[in-house]
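=== Structure Prediction Worksheet ===
Name of assembly: unnamed complex
Input type: mixed (protein and possibly other molecules)
Chain count: two
Listed entries:
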Amino acid sequence: MSSMAYSTALDSSPPSGEAVYGRMASEGLDTSHGAILYLDDISVSFDGFKALNKLSLSIDVGELRCVIGPNGAGKTTMMDVITGKTRPDEGTAFFGQTIDLARLSEAQIAQAGIGRKFQKPTIFEQHTVFENLELAMKSDKRVRRTLFARLSSEARDRIAAMLERVGLAGAAERVAGLLSHGQKQWLEIGMLLMQEPRLLLLDEPVAGLSDDETERTAELFLTLAGKHSLVVVEHDMAFIARIARKVTVLHEGSVLAEGPHEQVQADARVIEVYLGR
Amino acid sequence: MTRLFSARGWIALAAFAAALLLVVPVLALVVPQGSALHLSQYWVGLCGKFLCYAIVALAMDLVWGYAGILSLGHGLFFALGGYAMGMYLMRQIGLDGVYHSPLPDFMVFLDWKAYPWYWSFTEHFWYCAALVVLVPGLLAYVFGWFAFRSRIKGVYFAIITQALTYAALLLFFRNDTGFGGNNGFTDFKRILGIPIATPQMRVVLFMLSAGALIGSLLLARWLVSSKFGRVLAAIRDAEPRVMFCGYNTEHYKLFVWTLSAVLCGIAGALYVPQVGIINPSEMSPANSIEIAIWVAVGGRGTLVGALLGAFAVNGAKSFFTQAFPEIWLYFLGLLFVLVTLFLPQGVVGALRLLRRGKPAPAA
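=== Predicted Assembly ===
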């Protein structure tokens, strides 16, 4: 897959400047400063409730970041801001050096290379597993192209490889709605990967999974880190401990603590608001 | 992976086409009157009308069954197509109206001296044929652009479409609007200079409707079995996921919505010369709701179900209005209640369930 090449290709690619808004080629993403995502002083309020309060965060290329925090800390709102679902009242959100996320629609942000997994597995329940991956696959997603789109054998191979990777090779023609909860979670992850995103946002990816499935998910994420940047929001502390390098704790819409897992776990304020309960 | 039709599907389609395009013309024109097999003008007209309704049902199924957009204003697009054709048919009356004026009777009655500007060129068939497609298409495009951009969906969208068709009804109801007010257009004499009420012309119109229906079915089938169709169904089931996959769902909805309106316009244009009248009642909210009912009865998201629903509901309506004129509405109501209660997937959905058998073999 071409994604293997990008850490080297990036260094040689010149900064692409403003022109990048038009065609969202993720290859054109300028990460020359080492970070793929910058949130700076983001505030969002709903009817007076401050869901995010001057939140600042930056994610490095290839990083696997875990975000934790009690309910209402603003984790999902943060993902909404990054993916264009919610517009920040204040502050800026940049993807790479040049892509201003506040100016793009959800679809454009996805095209630019940010993939998102929802808290509740969101797949196309009436479509087959194969079709789910086909629809998600990186391609020209304009109406006219989609009308006349035909699957190349190379595309079929890529779908087959992904089916293998997410353990659904035997279920390709199964209607996705009939999958088990764990399989749906994995199918959704497979769909994200088909988009070849640079940054993956994963909202509670192991919620409702068995121990065995959780372990396999952890392994998958560890192999993805490096090639992709990952932001994982999770409540399952065992899972966090398994995969975490750097952890960010959100509380009342801003960053309470940030650092290596052990350090955050030992932080008195974190224990007070979250871990202790 | 997804073919246009299975082998059996093609055979069924060919049989359906042959029945409409060969059997009906022969029974109506070749078989002598008085024979038990003769098809009277009444029946040709009635079946032709049903064919037009079936096109509308198909158009509805595309937006509702596949894209999940419930429209309760599709009657408006049908009526606009009908009015565009009606303008041409009014021009074709020529001097044969009641007042022997070059203007339509209703304009003479209003003491108008000339055609208003928007009647310009309507004496040309091809101009009106273009209007049949462009007027519903453009209205749908503009309306859809605003509605989908504002992310209006579900019941709110349905209510706005009801309001839209009702507003149009009130507008067309006014005599000053210049479309014949309450009475609309009627008393057509000719089309392309040929008398319109002859048995031959009726069969020609019937066959055109059949051709349009089969063409629409092929187009719709091609659309829904393409990747585009799979994206539509995905929008219906999980629109946020489709957006986060990088599809601009507004464009998809706008495309299918506009196409659907154009199909309705064509159906309306074929309908008007066959029934001989177009008036604002076609825009009444109840008419548009009925269209949704045809599709619900037949089975959403199946195309065949839409056809079946349009034929079955309208057939039942025709039968009951003749057999039990006082209580036919109750029969119709009962039909809908039964379908809602026992066939939530419509007739086609129920048939599929039956065919799949009781204990599904473990896959």
